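Hello Y.,

Per our agreement to keep a running log of every chain we model this quarter, I'm adding this entry. I've kept the format consistent with earlier entries: sequence first, then predicted structure.
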Amino acid sequence: MVLSMTGCSSAGSITTFTAAVEEMPTNFDPQIATAPRDLLVISNIFDGLFETVNGETRNNLAESCTISSDGKTYTITLKQDSIFHCRGNKKDEFNGTGVTAHDFVFAINRVLDPKTHSPYIDDFSNILAVTAENNYTLVIKLKKPDYNFCEKLASTAAFPCNEEFFWRAGGAYGLSLDNILSNGPFMLNYLDTEGGNATILRMDENEKGIARIRLKKLDSASQATGYTNEEISGYFAYSARDTAYSDTASIEFDSGNISLVFNMDNTAFANENVRKALGWYAFAFRNSGANLQAVDPCTRIFPGTVTLAGKYITDLIAVTEPAYMGNDPKSMIQQGLAELDMSKLPAATILMPDDSMYTLIYENINQLWQKNLGQFFTIEYLPTSQLKQRVAQGDFDMAFLPLTPDNSTPYGLLDMFTGYYSWLDDTINSAKGKADQNNAIADITAAQDIILQSAMAVPMGSEQTVFYYRNYFADIYADPFTGVINLKHATVK
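Predicted structure for the entry above:
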């Protein structure tokens, strides 16, 4: 997903953001929705107990949170000024209804109910019970301590859901304007899916800042041009930087490590020796022929902005160089071909980002494979956003991919590699179940070592995502992993 923002002038001040989305949002049920376009809306029209901003989790509707000495009971006192709002035929009955602890109990129990089919059920499976002591006191009991639990409560899955409204929606909760009951500073007021337009209004007209968010369906390829022409006032740039813009501010994220990745459902690339032979020329640009003084080599799979319990994961884990880097790549490819009973690898295509600063190095690696290993691959160039989509769909053989998780935790990246090795799955699941950070770090490190040592992914270099925006806006919080822009705190200078 690629977003952009445009401002509309009114009496000398800019009060509107226009966010461009490739596809219009369709699901506004916080306990179900996962698509970035849906999360963009949900994140701005709902408020939860906590919120994560710039990697830091802080109180939102939680006035206070007390954790028992054994780490298994969370007692959360709610603020008493949050209210629901909606439009449509239930407006008169539900507008202004106060948000209580019961709404969080119902929301979390929906996630835990297998009938809901919530994609977030695993994140909350450690919950033993969730109850409301009174309207503004929420008690959550865990099966075992979870040092990362408040971060989970900051996710959209833990946003409040009014039980009466939910049942009155008759199975259509969150699927249309009339069946959305939200409690954030904005409300979705207009949605034209076919026409590609939507309007999100700020509820308190006296509140300073952005008064309206507009959504418009717009192809991602048009974002940079639109920004240059001042048709929009902000957009995400992947794998590239451009400082020629005027009246521009930017937020830079170390959000992706360029890695050589393989489709392991492909018989040839499921072979470990084949992957290692190809990876030998790519790891940290070590044998790629690149001038290592002019590039930014990387030996880890986690981008720098991935966090664990408020700390950058790159400050918490060590990296061990893959043992295969000490081997002969020609011997490894011959061993792999023998195991496959092949004389050479079958025809394959490698995807390359056409907007990367390292494109020439990727091309050189492909030439080294031809010259030294006798393996020829077709190149297909794609914008980074499209390349990521192809890989996510499994529509690829190999790719030079900005390895970017779908959330800011290390598990968001590790989950990309589940389903191939049972021992890797066991290690990842073990890391998720650890009650303290040190034990989790040990398992996360072990999982990374498996991925690196078996060349499931070959980290090469670091690349940044940059969010450019007009400098008359401030306090915009962007998430490079989901592409979501949090505009609830945005102001106009």
